[in-house]
Amino acid sequence: MAIRPLYMILKSADRDSLQIASTMASLAAVSERPVHVFVSMGALRVFNKNGAGNERYGDSPLNAAFCEKNVPDPIETFRQGKTLGDMTIWACAMVLDVLGWDESHLVEGLFDGQTGLAKFLSNAEGGDLIAV
Amino acid sequence: MSERKVIDARGSFCPGPLMELIAALKLMDVGAEVEILSSDEGTAQDVPEWTTKVGHELVEMGERDGHWYLVVRKTK
């Protein structure tokens, strides 16, 4: 049976959500499953290149514990998944526009570009889609 | 004798140890082995699962001095 690509929409800025999202995406990518991530809504602000460490995340139940235990940062986990596996990451064009940002505002070396939700959803018809 | 690299990932949480293993395997020749040390219970389940799924070989695994050790041989 052919492997179905995983399409993931990120919308939450909280650490808990991004922690599980980055882990799922990266594990799938390194397990020979293509992964495509669309970063939208509050999640996109987390990827501001000027964000600093844990301060980039909103409140979430496990945020403090993750930091105290030095659990891998979601952005670095996405980066590992992209480096070691088959993963693309796209910024939501609408949210970039609302924030007055362009791709130069985002963490470097992670994004493949910007795209619209309709285009992403169209591509996702060929795989499994989840939103986090 | 094949090359073997030891990665001490004790104290690192999921998915850190598995990612370190995969990164090391990428840089090694077919037949080389990586031994990963981990204190993370999930790693002891995730590494065998990933190894089987992508077609590498789990040479040995077990517990030693309060941590897990898993040896993976690169097959492709």
Write down the secondary-structure element order of chain A: EHEHHHEHEHE
* Count of helical regions of chain A: 6
Report the helical percentage of chain B: 25-40%
Question: Distance N terminus to C terminus of chain B?
Answer: 18 Å
Mean pLDDT of chain A: 94
Total count of strands of chain B = 4
**Secondary structure: number of strands of chain A:** 5
**Adjacency order of strands in the biggest sheet of chain B:** 1-2-4-3
Oligomer: heterodimer
Spatial strand order of the main sheet of chain A: 4-3-2-1-5
**CATH-defined superfamily of chain B:** TusA-like domain
**Please, what is the average pLDDT of chain B?**
94
Q: Unreliable runs of chain B, pLDDT <50, ≥5 residues?
A: none
Level-1 CATH class name of chain B = Alpha Beta
- Tally of structural domains of chain A: 1
